[in-house]
Amino acid sequence: MPRGIPNPAAMYGISPRTWGFEVSIVRNGTRYYKQFGRASYGSEEQALLQAQDWRDEVVRSVPPVPRRARAEKLRINNTTGVSGVFCQVGSSGRIRAWVAKTYIGQDEVLRTDFPVDAMGSAAQALAIEERSRQLERMAGLARLHPAEEAIRTAPAAHPAEPRSPKRSKSEIRRRTNSSGVSGVHFKSPNVGHPGYWLAITYTAGKGSVSKAFSIKEHGPDTAKQMAIAERERQLEAKLNATGVSVPYRPEIRQSHLATAEARPDL
After folding, report:
1. Is the whole model's pTM more than 0.70, yes or no?
2. Residue 57 in this model has a pLDDT that exceeds 50
């Protein structure tokens, strides 16, 4: 959104990117940041839902500071040692008055001046006392965005539809993939070679497992379907080894079923 115009509530803290969405929220000097790619979650809609869920959790678990605490924080240009208390200096360089000032709301600013000529050396102490009284009028949390309070107190505003689990890198289909299934690739060693379909799965710390299916031996369609079925077996073995249940992958299941109908021996 243009500077000075807050994002709609649904997009608070969320920025669209060419690859998906990123969430960035700052709390008390700490930045909470996370990326949600459409490739990792299967679609732009799922990536946005996951980003909103994570944003909502941050907003609820790490609320803004109380307004009074923020008002009591000393600014860099403060010279008195007390926030909201400053002195007025005349043209001669002499202090004319001590002032206590507190911003309560858009239409309410509290200010009391204590002239030195009338109150002498007690003017500064009186201003500090007045500032404490003014701060007692300040309640609630710092308001960072109109959506903040709604997110913290109300049920989720975005659809409560099922969320897709994040895909592992081995399940993400790259743009260069020509098979339509992640981990299944066509390879041709050289010009004139009929080539082969390759199923390959990488496991962090364990290297990769791969198996090739020759087009010369099986034909282009059968070799491809055999590679897809092999990729399915590789992923199941990888997930079973880590004790994680096998997720439903429609692009693999549909291809595998089609192959099973055509080739009962697979």
Report:
1. no
2. yes
